Amino acid sequence: MSAPNPLPTYVYKILPSAPPKPLPDVLPLSDLDANDGFIHLSTASQVPGTCGRFFADATELWLLKIRLQTLENGTGEVRWEAAGNSGVFAHLYGGKFGAEEVDESLKV
User: Fold this and answer.
1) How would you list the strands of the sheet with 77-82, edge to edge?
2) What is the pLDDT of residue 2?
3) Global pTM?
4) How do residues 16-47 score in pLDDT, each as one tens digit?
5) 3-class DSSP state for residue 29?
6) Which residues on neighbouring strands pair with residue 14, listed in sequence order?
7) What residue ranges in the chain does DSSP mark as E strands?
8) CATH code that applies to domain 10-107
9) What burial class does residue 48 get, using C-beta atoms within 10 Å of its C-beta: 0-12 exposed, 13-18 middle, 19+ buried?
10) Phi, psi of 104 (to 5 degrees)
11) What is the pLDDT of residue 37?
């Protein structure tokens, strides 16, 4: 499947607990990201569905707001891939992100 058109300005990394303060230069991979070989990201419109599907038991979540262009200009490769019937999601392969790439950390 192809990337959304137009591309979103931001993508989000969902965390089940607060990120470290201050944010490190490189955030550690989640177990899921390490096992899958890429970093799972969601667009703003995908965040509610992703939270409901994978984090339904969480009482709080954290969203890391990341400018997509920052990731695309980095060391990794952003691929837009289908995830079942849920649509096309951004996956970051071979890249990393941390304090420099995260524009905002939001508790939800």
Assistant:
1) 39-40, 88-93, 77-82
2) 83
3) 0.93
4) 999 999 999 999 998 889 999 999 999 999 99
5) coil
6) 63
7) 10-15, 39-40, 62-67, 77-82, 88-93, 102-107
8) 3.20.170.20
9) exposed
10) -160, 145
11) 94
Handedness of CA 23, 28, 31, 37 (dihedral sign): positive
Q: Report residue 5 as tokens.
A: 């058109």
Closest CA to 43 of 79, 7, 94: 7
DSSP H or E segment with residue 54? helix 47-54
Secondary structure letter of residue 42 according to DSSP: B
Residue 99 DSSP code: T
> What does the block give as tokens for 45?
């419109």
Rounded Cα distance, 86 and 67, in Å = 22
Which tokens in the block code for residue 2?
Answer: 């192809």
Averaged over successive runs of 10 residues, the pLDDT of the chain (108 residues) comes to 89 94 92 93 94 91 95 89 88 92 94
| CB contact at 8 A, 9 and 67 | yes
